[in-house]
Design goal:
Radius of gyration: 26 Å
Mean pLDDT: 88
Strand content: over 45%
CATH class of the largest domain: Mainly Beta
Number of helices: 3
Order of helices and strands: HEEEHEEHEEEEEEEEEEEEE
CATH architecture of the largest domain: Beta Barrel
Helix content: 10-25%
Largest sheet: 16 strands, antiparallel, barrel
Number of strands: 18
CATH topology of the largest domain: Porin
CATH superfamily of the largest domain: Porin
Structural class: mainly beta
Strand order of the largest sheet: 1-2-3-4-5-6-7-8-9-10-11-12-13-14-15-18
Amino acid sequence: MKTIINTNFVKNLFLAGFALMSTASFAQEEEETEKKFTLGGSVDTYFRTNLSSTDVGAQNPGTSFADGTGFNLGMANLIASYESGKVGAVADLVFGPRGDAAVGGDIPYVNQLYAYWNVSESTTLTFGRFNTFLGYEVISPTGNFNYSTSYLFSSGPFSHVGLKADFALSDDFSLMLAIMNPTDTNFNSGTGAYSLGAQLGYSGQYLNFYYDGGEVLGFEVDYTGGVDLSDDFFLGINAALATDEGNGFYGAALYPQYKTSEAFTLGLRGEYFQPTIDGIDTGDIPSVLGLTLTGSYSVDNLTFKPEIRLDSWSDDAPVFFDNDGEATNGLSSFLIAAVYSF
């Protein structure tokens, strides 16, 4: 009888230990499933030529990126993210001319670098360097319909370094508040000055604010949104006003896009842009009207973007030169870009 008791005790002890190990192993596996690593990004390249002027010299629209002639490189973009439970981090690296123009020389190759904490289902804190919340367009060509960028995007901030808090107030309303270094001082402030940012969102429409007390940009208010006019027709909208002690600007852009098939979409960017002095339109600075017609044809993860662009300045002073070497205020150009995302 004693032997049986001991045997049962050993068996029960073994089963209890096995169950404990199985539970621990299951818990460990469950914990491991909460950890997620992803790697993605894009590669882009393009060919560009001027139609109304020679390709020799600095004959380009004057906006950021896609400003070379002939065959050119855009950038390679590598985005690594790691999430474990409620916290995570993102390292977004860029290599190439587009990336160099986007990040500047203070922190080469680093487009974004931040850690985040999902405090609750409705609140997220982000700490580090992140792309700007202002404007309709972004740095990565995968996030834009047009390959070349607008004057509004080129004149505003690209990225910020600081702390932001995102709040999902309801299914439709969202709020973001941020304290950051002044824009374009993305490595460190060095002046003791900081900037404030805010974004109020409602059903895909966003009202954005930036303020640094005149340190760099001064004050900017920006509206970004759009509406689906039908299943195949989308209209994007962007309008902005920026004032500071030096140069400011205001303007608006419309982005109608029509989807003709699953593979092809045709879109137009129509933009009016007016630089200002001390936030005032003195009438001495010419404005520009930009029209960009872009096609987007996708084959799996590769997208081809043929694009015709017309830039017309209002002043009589020469801005460009035509094919005969005569001064002109208009420039027409053509490009075709290839963008691969993974």
